[in-house]
């Protein structure tokens, strides 16, 4: 039975949704920790899903799959760190409407002319 306001696991709506919706998703192929689970979604894939769902008004519920002891394993930490960094950059762009980047160094002058 589908709960009103909830998409199926890992589903993306076709367009903007009305009301409060959520999308439960996993970082790999399972909802529970499995020592042999190595089929992790790429950070790029998860960032694209986050941006797409957010743009459609959907909350993205991402399961990080902790171990039975409650530990977060390294692949999940890497993805969470990348998502946090992307959100930080997005917040800065939305707030100041500008990006600050380091300019490449000037090439040395041509002394052979």
Give an overview in words.
With 113 residues, the chain is α+β, with helices and mostly antiparallel strands. It has a domain at 22-96. It is built from two helices and two strands, in the order βαβα. It has a two-stranded parallel ribbon. Helix 1 links the parallel strand 1 and strand 2 (58-63). It is extended and about 65 Å long. The termini are far apart.
Topology:
Layout: E1 21-26, H1 43-55, E2 58-63, H2 74-96
Parallel strand pairs: 1-2
Succession of helices and strands: EHEH
Q: Structural class of the helix and strand makeup?
A: alpha+beta
Strand order of the largest sheet: 1-2
Supply Rg.
20 Å
Low-confidence stretches: none
* Total beta strand runs: 2
Percent strand equals 5-15%
Distance between the termini: 77 Å
Helix content: 25-40%
- Average pLDDT reading: 77
Number of helices: 2
Shape: extended
Query: Main sheet?
Result: 2 strands, parallel
Brief account:
With 113 residues, the protein is an alpha+beta fold.
Please name the defining characteristics of this protein:
two-stranded parallel ribbon, 113 residues, extended, 32% helix, alpha+beta
């Amino acid at each position: 039975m589908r709960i009103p306001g909830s998409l199926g696991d890992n589903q993306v709506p076709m367009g903007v949704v009305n009301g409060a919706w959520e999308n439960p998703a996993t970082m790999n192929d399972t909802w529970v920790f499995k020592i042999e689970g190595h089929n992790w979604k790429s950070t790029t894939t998860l960032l694209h899903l986050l941006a797409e769902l957010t743009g459609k008004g959907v909350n993205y519920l991402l399961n990080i799959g902790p171990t039975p002891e409650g530990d977060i394993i390294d692949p999940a930490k890497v993805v969470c760190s990348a998502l946090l960094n992307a959100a930080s950059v997005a917040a800065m762009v939305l707030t100041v409407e500008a990006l600050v980047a380091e300019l490449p160094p000037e090439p040395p002058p041509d002394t052979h002319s």
